[in-house]
């Protein structure tokens, strides 16, 4: 599997107001407060209903402010359980794709959308909107690589950023694509221009050269994916994509976990928002299968991600997460401790039979979670 | 050991196909059932069906190809004995496309509206209005076609079949282009009684009607007059229905009986003042404007016991109350049961005879009642020993029905009396 994170923001609650930021982490940590603050120029992002489904809305703020959606690698390791790889050095070519709405405002700001992180908040290379409609890659050596007039105000665009590191030698590069077409290529540059992709990942947001003065519209973000270019399953960006949420709509067999109320397990865990009062609880050996709403007609399915938000109760428990089409394909997510709520993701590029997903196989597969 | 899961979600990373809707499948199913309960005769039943059907799709920015919003609507009105029935069907359906690119859009609207009558005592007017408004708009259309298929079937029992279809078909789009709006219309009017011989329409409708004219030769030409001189009586045309019904206006209970004895028996009661004077002369006074009560008397023979019990119960339950009566000639009356019958006789084993009386009047247009005019003139002229009393009764009766040929029957009765002293 090389696609290891997808995010459509459909499952983060409703578009009401709350008091906390939201961050998604590749390292499985998760804030218990998941609602999104209704923003504007207060400096917070908000969840909005867009024509593409739910999206994250950002006001364009000066460089000292702004919030982000962060995708981090686990501390001290490039290995991520989703990737099923055993060596660290293989992961040196990452593609991050995301859909962005360029607001039709009078401001022509430079707005940083994508940051490659080398620390919790330390950004190395960045990809920015240039003067409202252009695009810029700024490498770690502060060299700008620009292209103009590739974006249109008042429209959604799909931007993909591919960045390759070559530790210790030249050979790294960064490319940017807009709506499937390559618009920027830094070319092969000396690695010293790039900071080694350390234990942190990347983040998406809006950090501008100044506050936007025209507040009639804001930047919006949606349909995120992150994949590792392994040269086998994926050789580069996969083009404009869409993330479609498929919530559980029925219990399948087996159905061992115990619901907090009623008799339908899926009903306890199918909401866009969640709270600790509504849940299903399983003990060792309990296995739950669910069916989900159907996927409509598509050209292809690149990956399916299964996500569960869990918390250990009296002691830590191991969890297997995945899917089953008669053949089970589950991944050991490790021990889930008590105290903290965590979000565990399992991303599959093929179905349990090892065949590329189709609309039909997505609709027939059962989603699973099992306490070991 | 226990592990709690608060949320479980699945997300698919998909590549939209050109012209495919990548959203989750969306369906908008509208199930609508409307039924009308019994409404007493003479009242108006209306069954108006308002329908709004919306389908909302998540639109992928890469374009859209096909959005379907199928609306199937059927409205059925079943009536029994209504004077006025209306079946209005209004439909408004709009499909709006919004997106950076729009492919060919299709909007197919199938609408069927039928009004059928299972049992009608009489139907004076039936309206079946079908109003259809269909709007199709596309922001960036490349090709817009709108096909409207309409089938409107009206089947009525009365003479006048009016079938009005109001159709507004509008196709708007942002850019100019060829407008294709094929309209297929099939309209059929069937009447068993009388209809227009031919119907033509200037545009696309041609109507052919078939009618049946009862041959007069099929009627009885029997003449009962025998002898010579005088005027032969008018032949009485036999007009006999096979149903005789009583229906409660409160519960709707219907009692169907065999037809009664086929003679119209009335008892007319009116006020008349007699005054005898000391000279033993008799003056008679009556005012034609005084109320004349006409009681209908029915005798039904050879009824089965279970039918008798049903009738008896009905007369008991509705004694003194208004009920509907449909007589053996098919005329519907609004009557009050005044006498449920004093004696039910078993003429022979298993065969019962019943008499009952009602007072009432026919529904408007059903029957033109016979006007009974009493004009008494009493004069005291001449010798006290001779008195002439003239008592003239003029009875004019005519029966007319909206589907019968009007016939009139004049009856004159003149009587006179003379007193002579011998």
Structure description:
The complex is a heterodimer of chains A (372) and B (422). Chain A is mostly beta strands. Chain A has two helices and 24 strands. In chain A, the strands form five sheets. In chain A, strands 1, 2, 3, 5, 10, 11, 12 and 14 form an eight-stranded antiparallel β-sheet that branches. Chain B contains one helix and 26 strands. In chain B, strands 14, 15, 16, 19, 20, 21, 22 and 23 form an eight-stranded antiparallel β-sheet that branches. In chain B, strands 2, 3, 5, 6, 8 and 10 form a six-stranded parallel β-sheet that branches. Chain B has a four-stranded parallel β-sheet with strand order 4-7-9-11, with no helix packed on it. The radius of gyration of chain B is 35 Å and the shape is elongated. The C terminus of chain B is likely disordered. The interface between A and B is large, with 74 and 32 residues.
Given the structure, what is the number of helices of chain B? 1
End-to-end CA span of chain B: 134 Å
Q: How many β-strands of chain B, per DSSP?
A: 26
Query: What is the rounded distance between the termini of chain A?
Result: 23 Å
Features:
heterodimer; A: 372 residues; mainly beta; 8-stranded antiparallel beta sheet; 6-stranded antiparallel beta sheet; 2 helices; 24 strands; 3% helix; B: 422 residues; 6-stranded parallel beta sheet; 1 helix; 26 strands; elongated; disordered C terminus
């Amino acid at each position: 599997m090389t696609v290891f994170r997808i995010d459509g923001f459909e499952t983060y609650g409703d578009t009401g107001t709350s008091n906390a930021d939201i961050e998604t982490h590749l390292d499985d940590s998760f804030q218990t407060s998941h609602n999104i603050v209704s923003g504007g120029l207060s400096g917070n992002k908000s969840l909005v209903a867009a024509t593409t489904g739910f999206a994250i809305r950002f006001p364009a703020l000066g460089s000292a402010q702004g919030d982000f959606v962060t995708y981090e690698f686990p501390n001290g390791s490039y290995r991520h359980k989703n990737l099923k790889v055993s060596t660290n050095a293989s992961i040196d070519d990452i593609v991050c794709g995301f859909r962005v709405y360029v607001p039709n405002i009078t401001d022509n700001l430079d707005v940083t959308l994508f940051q490659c992180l080398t620390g919790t908040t330390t950004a190395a290379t960045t990809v920015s909107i240039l003067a409202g409609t252009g695009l810029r890659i700024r490498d770690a050596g502060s060299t700008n690589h620009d292209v103009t007039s590739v974006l249109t105000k008042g429209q959604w665009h799909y931007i993909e950023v591919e960045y390759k590191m070559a530790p210790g030698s030249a050979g790294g590069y960064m490319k940017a694509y807009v709506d499937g077409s390559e618009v920027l290529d830094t070319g092969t540059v000396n690695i010293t221009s790039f900071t080694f992709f350390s234990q942190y990942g990347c983040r998406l947001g809006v950090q501008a050269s100044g506050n936007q003065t025209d507040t009639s519209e804001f930047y919006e973000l949606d349909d995120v994916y992150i994949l590792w270019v392994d040269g086998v399953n994926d050789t580069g960006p996969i083009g404009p994509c869409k993330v479609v949420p498929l919530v559980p709509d029925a219990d399948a067999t087996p159905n061992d976990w115990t619901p907090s109320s009623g008799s339908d397990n899926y009903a306890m865990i199918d909401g866009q928002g969640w709270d600790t009062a509504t849940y299903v609880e399983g003990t060792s050996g309990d296995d739950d299968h669910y069916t989900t709403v159907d996927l409509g007609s598509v050209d292809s399915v690149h990956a399916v991600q299964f996500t569960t938000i869990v918390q250990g109760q009296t002691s830590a428990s191991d969890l297997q997460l995945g899917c089953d089409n008669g053949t089970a394909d589950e991944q050991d997510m490790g021990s889930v401790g008590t105290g903290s709520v965590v979000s565990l993701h399992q991303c599959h590029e093929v179905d349990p039979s090892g065949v590329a997903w189709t609309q039909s196989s997505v609709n027939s597969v059962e989603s699973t979670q099992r306490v070991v | 050991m226990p592990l709690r899961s608060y949320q479980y979600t699945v997300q698919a990373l998909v590549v939209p196909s050109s012209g495919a809707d990548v959203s989750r499948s969306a369906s908008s199913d509208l199930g609508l059932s409307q039924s009308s309960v019994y409404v007493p005769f003479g009242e108006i039943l209306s069954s108006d069906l308002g329908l709004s059907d919306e389908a909302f799709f998540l639109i992928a920015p890469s374009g859209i190809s096909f959005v379907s919003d199928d609306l199937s609507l059927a409205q059925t009105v079943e009536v029994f004995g209504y004077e006025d029935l209306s079946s209005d069907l209004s439909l408004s359906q709009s499909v709006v496309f919004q997106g950076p690119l729009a492919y060919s859009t299709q909007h197919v609207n199938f609408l069927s509206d039928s009004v059928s009558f299972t049992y009608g005592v009489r139907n004076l007017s039936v309206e079946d209005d079908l109003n259809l408004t269909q709007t199709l708009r596309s922001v960036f259309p490349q090709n817009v076609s709108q096909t409207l298929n309409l089938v409107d079937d009206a089947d009525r029992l009365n003479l006048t079949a009016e079938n009005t279809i109001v159709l507004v078909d509008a196709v708007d789009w942002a850019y100019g282009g060829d407008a294709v709006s094929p309209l297929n219309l099939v309209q059929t009017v069937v009447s068993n009684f009388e209809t227009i011989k031919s119907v033509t329409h200037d545009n696309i409708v041609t109507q052919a009607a078939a009618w049946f004219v009862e041959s007069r030769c099929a009627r009885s030409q029997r003449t009962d007059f025998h002898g010579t001189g005088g005027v032969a009586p008018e032949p009485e045309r036999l007009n006999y229905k096979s149903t005789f019904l009583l229906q409660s206006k409160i519960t709707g209970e219907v009692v169907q009986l065999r037809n009664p004895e086929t003679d119209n028996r009335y008892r007319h009661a009116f006020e008349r003042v007699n005054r005898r004077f000391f000279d033993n002369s008799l003056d008679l006074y009556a005012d034609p404007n005084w109320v004349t009560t006409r009681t209908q008397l029915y005798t039904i023979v050879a009824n089965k016991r279970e039918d008798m019990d049903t009738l008896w119960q009905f007369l008991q339950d509705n004694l003194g109350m208004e009920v509907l009566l449909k007589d053996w000639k098919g005329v519907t009356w609004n009557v009050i049961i005044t006498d449920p019958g004093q004696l039910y006789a078993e003429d022979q084993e298993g065969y019962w005879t019943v008499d009952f009386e009602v007072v009432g009047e026919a529904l408007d247009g059903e029957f033109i009642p016979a006007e009974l005019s009493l004009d008494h003139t009493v004069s005291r002229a001449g010798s006290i020993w001779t008195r002439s009393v003239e008592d003239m009764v003029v009875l004019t009766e005519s029966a007319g029905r909206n589907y019968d040929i009007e016939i009139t029957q004049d009856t004159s009765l003149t009587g006179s009396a003379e007193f002579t002293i011998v």
